[in-house]
Specification:
Elements lengths: L9 E6 L6 H13 L7 E4 L5 H11 L8 H25 L3 E5 L2 H11 L4 H12 L6 E6 L2 H10 L14 H17 L4 E5 L4 H15 L7
Parallel strand pairs: 1-3, 1-4, 2-3, 4-5
């Protein structure tokens, strides 16, 4: 469903705990998705997506910033999201584009609200202010057990950025995943859960199938 007529495009978000493989899935998915759309989808990410938001990303994820307070972190994510929304997402939606965003508000609810323990309702409230109520039209949640995700991260340490979230213990990641599962259970029409423990080609194929059903009016054979 579109957001009350605001904008004419579609905002589709990808979510998942660390190690879910979102980057690999999106890299494999985007060429296949764009082959079926008359106008290429815009791929962007959070935190980041604009020069200002990318600067905030560096601040948030810098492993040296161990003194960062949990509420400061949540506010910085919301600030980055606001800038990203105003500069990139809303203009693209107004132009009728499909926007694929790697993480959005659900990430803040899961990571800061549940993972950091500062309260999901509080995080939801500051993001409601930041987004002026903008919600994804569709969310694909790539699910992996925390132990599997952490094992993947460890196995690929030399191939990815090591950030502040990677320093967290398993209990933190367990809380994050449970929050995601709760969000998916509460919004089954918006959030589609994909088993990301499957082989990568199968995960990509399932994501493409969900997108085809959602974008039926824009889909070209």
């Amino acid at each position: 469903m579109r957001n009350g007529g605001v904008g004419v495009g579609q905002l589709i978000t990808f979510e998942g705990p660390d190690g879910a493989g979102k980057t690999s899935v999106l890299n494999g998915l985007m060429p296949r998705l764009n082959a079926h759309l008359s106008q290429p989808a815009l791929l962007t990410r959070e935190p980041g997506g604009t020069p200002i938001a990318e600067q905030i990303r560096e601040l948030i994820l810098d492993p040296a910033n161990t003194a960062m307070d949990a509420r400061t972190e949540a506010l910085l994510y919301a600030a980055s999201r606001r800038q990203h929304l105003v500069e990139v997402i809303e203009p693209a939606l107004a132009a009728g584009r499909v926007v694929i965003c790697d993480r959005f508000v659900d990430s803040s609810i899961a990571y800061q609200g549940a993972g950091r323990g500062i309260g999901e309702d509080a995080v939801r409230a500051i993001n409601l202010f930041a987004t002026a109520g903008r919600q994804p039209d569709l969310t694909l949640y790539l699910d992996v057990p925390s132990a599997v995700g952490l094992a993947r991260i460890k196995a690929h340490q030399g191939e990815r950025q090591y950030d502040r979230l990677d320093q967290e213990k398993e209990a933190f990641h367990l809380r994050v995943r449970q929050a995601y599962l709760d969000l998916a259970a509460a919004s089954p029409t918006r959030i589609h859960t994909i088993d990301a423990t499957q082989p990568l080609p199968q995960v990509i194929a399932e994501c493409l199938s969900v997108l085809q059903q959602h974008l039926v009016s824009d889909w070209q054979s």
